[in-house]
Amino acid sequence: MALHFCSLSVKILTLFVIILLFLPRAVTAIPELELESMLAAVRTRGYNLFCNAITTSDIYYEVLAGTSFTFFAPTDASLFALDMIATSSDYITTLRFHVVPRRFSLSDLRTLPPGSSLHTLVPLHDISIERLPSLGFDIITANGINVVVPGLFYGRDIAVHGLGGILSFRSQIGQRQDSPPPPSEANFSGNHSSVVGDSHAPPPENSSSFDRFAQRQDSPPPPSEANFSAWSG
C-alpha cells in the first residue's frame, strides 16, 4: 500500500513539473532601479537635457513596461536648439526616434551587416547604422551622426551611446531643419531686401540721379555753345 502511494505521488509530482514547463513565461519588465541608474550615469557625462526629457515624458513608463532598449543620446546643445523651433509633439517624437526597443552594445553595432537599420519607437522611422574605418578603430554612425561616446551606460536591459549631434527624422520638423519651405525663403528675402538692394542693385531713384548727373557732364547745354560762338566772332 505504501509503495503504491509513493508511486502515485511521483506521478503527480512529475505531471506538475511538466505543466510548469509548458506554462507561458511572464515577460520581465525593466527594473526601475536600472532605469534610474542609467539616467544618473548619463547625466554625469553631460547629457542632461535628454535625461530630463525622458523623465518628464511618457517614454519613462514605456521603457519600464518594455524588455530591453538602446538609447542614442543627443547633445544638450542640439536638444536646446530643437526646443527653440519645435512644437512639443515634434520634440517628443524626436526623443522617441532616439530610442531602439532592443539592447545593442558597441560590439553588437560593429557586427551588424552593412546597411543595417534599427527600428525605433517612431513607427516607420528607422536608424541607419554604418561603420566607418578609421585609424586604429572603427567609427559608428547613426543616420550619419557620429557615436562619440559608445558604451555611455550598460545595464542588463539598457545600453546608451552618446551622439555628437541629434537625429532628425523625415517629417515636418525634419523639413524645417534640412530644407526650409518657401515661406521661410520669403521671410529671409524680406528681412534682407534692403541690404541686398544697397549692395548689388541700386534703386531706380539712384539710377536716374546718376543719369542726370552724367548728362550735365557730357552734353553741355545750348547756352554754353552760344557763348563760345560770340567769343569766336
From TrEMBL:
Residues 186-196 have a biased composition (Polar residues). InterPro entries: FAS1_dom_sf (IPR036378), FAS1_domain (IPR000782), Fasciclin-like_AGP (IPR052806). It comes from Nyssa sinensis. Keywords: Signal. Residues 173-233 are annotated as: Disordered. Pfam families: Fasciclin (PF02469). Residues 1-29 form the signal peptide. The keyword Signal applies. Residues 34-153 form the FAS1 domain. PANTHER family: FASCICLIN-LIKE ARABINOGALACTAN PROTEIN 19, OS02G0491300 PROTEIN-RELATED. The keyword Electron transport does not apply. This is FAS1 domain-containing protein. Belongs to the fasciclin-like AGP family.
